[in-house]
C-alpha cells in the first residue's frame, strides 16, 4: 500500500509506502496528481518517506512503477527522500542518471528540512 496526499498549496506530493507496492497504488496516485499537473504544469516536489523500500507485490507492479516514473519524472521539480535506510540514502545518486528532477536525501530527523527544501521551489 502506498499512502499519498497532495499539498495543493505548495504543489507537493507526499508518498509513504506501508507494505509491498501494487500496480493499483500507482494508478491511484496518478488519478490524484494528473489533474493537478494538467492544470499547473508540474509538481513542485515529491516527498517520499519510508523506513525502507518495501518492494513490489509482483513483476507487473515493478513495470508499472517504472512506467509511472517515466511518465511523470519530467513533471516534478524536486524529490526529497526522507529515510535512514542505507539503500534509500543512495537513491539520489542513482536517480540523478535517470530522472530530470533534483533529488536529495534527508534523514528521518530532517523531515522539516526536506519540506522546506521542497516548498522553496514555490518561492523561487
From TrEMBL:
Gene3D superfamilies xrefs: SpoIIaa-like domains (3.40.50.10600)
Pfam families per the UniProt record, alphabetical: SpoIIAA-like
State the name under which the record lists this protein.
Answer: STAS/SEC14 domain-containing protein
Origin species, per record, is Roseiconus nitratireducens
Provide the taxonomic classification: Bacteria, Pseudomonadati, Planctomycetota, Planctomycetia, Pirellulales
